[in-house]
Design brief:
10-stranded parallel beta sheet, alpha/beta, 4 helices, 40 strands, 2 domains, 12-stranded mixed beta sheet, UDP N-Acetylglucosamine Acyltransferase, domain 1
């Protein structure tokens, strides 16, 4: 594919500084870009790479100073470049239908323009929507539903009673609908509590590789629309993840916790069960959440506390040895003064 810079600027909704007739044939990172390619800058730490890039043009905000190349000026370079990448991405393969070697139950309902690769297995009563792709090794359990345009990568397990919305992407090795971790203990014996709920994943959700979303014990575990879940994330039974939330790699959310809308859990955050995390909450990496968190706040630490307080604590920590020494000296001086007074 080829596009002129004028065409690209119009497509991205930006203004162009430079020769609009220049032709772009691809996209690349600043350090890798070659003539004829478009790149971008959204983080100031990469400004130094502007001097050495060979890109024909870049996408940047209005305040970035650029010499010797064309610039498409936009408000959000990262998002605009993502749209450019999609434009130049290789064309998708046409639908392949149910391929030889795939196994689809006779009473499963399969929509139009699907691709079911060899080795995929669709159980009785399952429903596969239009334009769905199931890669090799995908298992779809009895009665589960996968909505229109969803993309399920190799070796994903979708257990029975799972409902997946439209345009959902699930990456390889992920398990949706495994039993929740529920046991009643008596006399030193752990008795399994049957997990008879399901999982509801709404539209436009993406779930990374080797993640797990457990089924509810009674009701559903719910991932609301537009949420993005990274690799190696654990979502326990009956959790509700609010609309537009982001959960980063190796985070874990314990059972029956409710995350509000647009919550961000950074890498390796742990959240205990039966909590409520308010809308717009941001939790810093490696934090441990052990209580309800108020909406619109940032938190960090173990246990998680307001982020500004956590920064003050971190500023003090390196000084603790010296403070301990000072306190010890002051204590000795005070003891000496009290003895002299006596």
């Amino acid at each position: 594919m080829e596009k002129t810079l004028k065409e690209l600027a119009e497509y991205l909704g930006g203004s162009l500084d430079g020769d609009g007739s220049a032709v772009i044939r691809g996209v690349a990172a600043l350090k890798d870009a070659q003539p004829g390619e478009l790149s971008f800058i959204s983080n100031p730490k990469y400004l130094k790479e502007l001097k050495n890039t060979r890109a024909t043009a870049i996408v940047a905000t209005a305040d970035v100073v650029v010499e010797g190349m064309a610039v498409i000026r936009v408000n959000n370079p990262y998002l605009s470049f993502a749209r450019a990448v999609a434009l130049f991405a290789p064309a998708k393969r046409p639908p392949q239908g149910i391929m030889e070697g795939a196994r689809v139950s006779p009473d499963a309902r399969v929509g139009k323009d699907v691709t079911v690769y060899p080795g995929a297995f669709v159980e009785s009563g399952a429903e596969i929507g239009d334009s769905v792709t199931l890669y090799p090794g995908v298992y779809v359990g009895e009665g589960s539903v996968i909505g229109e345009g969803s993309l399920i990568y190799p070796n994903v397990v979708i257990r029975e009673g799972v409902r997946i919305g439209k345009r959902v992407i699930i990456h390889g090795g992920t398990v949706i609908g495994a039993d929740g971790f529920g046991y009643a203990t008596e006399g030193g014996v752990h008795h399994k509590i049957p997990q008879i709920g399901g999982v509801l994943i709404e539209d436009d959700v993406e779930i990374g590789a080797n993640a797990t979303v457990d089924r509810g014990a009674l009701g559903d575990t719910v991932i609301r629309r537009g949420s993005k879940i990274d690799n190696l994330v654990m979502i326990a039974h009956n959790v509700v993840v609010g609309e537009g939330s982001i959960i980063v790699a190796q985070a874990g959310v314990s059972g029956s916790t409710e995350l509000g809308k647009y919550v961000v859990l950074a890498g390796q955050v742990g959240v205990v069960g039966h909590l409520k995390v308010g809308d717009g909450v941001q939790v810093g990496a490696k934090s441990g959440v052990s209580r309800d968190l108020d909406a619109g706040q940032a938190y960090s630490g173990i246990p998680a506390i307001p982020h500004k307080n956590w920064l003050r604590v971190q500023a003090v920590l390196p000084k603790l040895p010296e403070l301990r020494r000072m306190v010890g000296e002051l204590t000795k001086r005070l003891d000496k003064l009290e003895k002299e007074k006596e």
